[in-house]
């Protein structure tokens, strides 16, 4: 009997240790109010994306839920309006597997939304399920679709500067190895899917890195965020139905709740003072070092060029040259079509010692990759 009690005690102790050290997420304590700001969260109808969108709505943002299913997207928008008390949560259709859908979303967004302050690429898949596409579906949904979307929305992000792009990546990027000769090859079988998932998450980290380089001095910064191991449907939806009832309680015990998973993406979207870390990878609300393959600037640039081709971007489609792209003075009143009568200044959104006549080239100057900021309150 004593041995049994001792065993149970040891097990409980081990679980508490694991829970507090590995499972429980440090909360994002960024203070930013988002009144008058607009955010887009992809894949916001479930899991981490839904909890991310909820927090943005609670802080007063107008939140666009970019989801592939109208039914699930509208239902999530309804839930989030109820829970946050913010009526400015809307659904817009976006299927990242379809480049035409990404373009249609961008057109609809740009014609109806005057601002874009926060773009969170959260949507992702871990498996192709039953679909058989003639291309690499995991790369398409997890990287190429978000790449194209960022490109098309860049002028609006720049005009709304200071603004941020957050790419929800994963620690799985550490197992990624990009083979540029077969990036878009269809993925078959679970082994190839696991590999393709890791590759696509490495692509996320490299994309954030190259995007930060290209956007230096524009007032738009970007970050790759790892949400931690989260109890969502990402992997569970692909396990056989009979196994799910067994795995769910286990997942509940040892994985983070989606709200916990949302903390690092939120930190990257909201935390003041992290602009010099644009392009870096964050986990547990802290910047983290990445393996050599994920900080290879030549690979990041090569991926950028390959992604342009896979996204069908022509040489004339260069968002950088859009005449709309000049950052507007964040202190100026909103345009007449804006749904927001009163817009905060840059310093209200990301409180830091900036003046209203901000020179973005100094604000977003990045610090060298090896250097670290002091740990943030989080
Ligand atoms: N869960 C984890 O442990 C974990 C760990 C590291 C990183 N992540 C990353 O976190 C992100 C969110 O994952 P999650 O755990 O919250 O999983 P989830 O609950 O499965 O959410 C994924 C979301 O992406 C959407 N989505 C899938 N394919 C799409 C498409 N073609 N177009 C538009 N939206 C699409 C899904 O919509 P439907 O509902 O319509 O399918 C869903 O809303 C992913 O990028 C994932 O890689 C998760």
From TrEMBL:
Residues 317-327 have a biased composition (Acidic residues). SUPFAM superfamilies: NAD(P)-binding Rossmann-fold domains. Residues 328-337 have a biased composition (Low complexity). GO terms for cellular component: extracellular region. It comes from the Eukaryota. It is found in: Secreted. The keyword Oxidoreductase applies. Putative oxidoreductase. This is Dehydrogenase/reductase SDR family member 13. It comes from Capra hircus (Goat).
